[in-house]
Amino acid sequence: MDLVWFMIIGMCAMNAIASACPENCQCRTGKITCKGFIIKEFPASIPPTNETQFFISNTSIESLKPTDFKTFAETLTVFVAKDSRIAVVEPHTFDQTKNLIALGFSGTMLTSLPQDLFQNLKALSTLTLSNNKLEVLQPSLFTPLTVLINLDLSRNLLTSLPEDAFLGLGKLEQLMLQRNSISMLYSGSFKGLSHLKALFLQQNHLTDIPAGVFDDLVNLEILHLQDNKISQLPANLFSNLSKLKKLYLSNNRLSLLLSVFSNLTEIRLLDLSRNQIQHISPGAFSGLMKLEEISLHTNRLTTIEAGIFKGLPKLVNISIENNLPPNSTTVPEDTCGGQGLSKDKLSIIIAIVSTAVIVGISVM
């Protein structure tokens, strides 16, 4: 009999949740999904649960206000608005959602955010603001987010990153800024991001990078700078990036490689392809003891100087095809400094440098 009553009570509870579910929404225990451009107002009558994850997509909702979350603010842990017409998020909208751990706005009409929007989100670990129309980052906008780990600002209309833009984000590990229109960085743009592991700055309009801009990124492992307009690299740009493992600089306007990589003692991959590099200075790659792969293809190199890859014991992959003039890039006999590359390693190099003239190197 007890089992029967338990089943009846359970069915009644499920029916209660279903009956309370807003129109054009699906409600399952702890998860609410509302979808469709027929939805013009924020869904009301949210069923009570111990934990609420709320997803809205492809709606005609144009604004959010504090009262929208009033009845379930304390239980809300995830809120995501995607591909909707939201253009305004009123100040204090999330003041009562203190247990929110993930917040996302993607594919909306947002051009800006209120200065104090995140002031009470002390538990937030993931913030996604991608594919919107954000033009400016308000000073100290993210400062209250002291436990934030992931921040996605990709595919917006940002043109610069002001000083202290991310101040307070001491635990941030991933920062995504790709596919904006960023042309200006300041020396303090990434100040305080000592735990950052991955920085995505590709597909922007960067031409110059100020010295010191990466100085606080002492734990950075991956740096994406490809698909910009960078013409030169300051001498000490990477001096504090001793933990960097992958550096992407392809499709920029670099013409000369100086000794700017010497402190990258943990680097495994260095991509310098699709630039305008005509000359590599001696010692440009010295000290890169763990470098495994380097890409220099599609540049304007005519000569690879002797010993240019000397002292790189882990190097197994060199790509220098498609340089200028075609089929005449010269690789001297001791390009690798007499390191005694194994047959396997050497065969990889020859296969990749198939369009170059190999001088004095033979496979044993």
From TrEMBL:
InterPro entries named in the record: Leu-rich_rpt, Leu-rich_rpt_typical-subtyp, LRR_dom_sf, LRR_TM_domain-containing
Family matches, as Pfam families: LRR_1 (PF00560), LRR_8 (PF13855)
Keyword terms, alphabetized: Glycoprotein, Leucine-rich repeat, Membrane, Repeat, Signal, Transmembrane, Transmembrane helix
PROSITE patterns tied to this protein: LRR (PS51450)
SMART domains in alphabetical order: LRR_TYP (SM00369)
GO cellular component: plasma membrane
Recorded superkingdom: Eukaryota
Record-annotated membrane-spanning stretches: 346-363
Residues spanning the signal sequence: 1-20
Protein name: Leucine-rich repeat-containing 15-like protein
Provenance organism: Labeo rohita
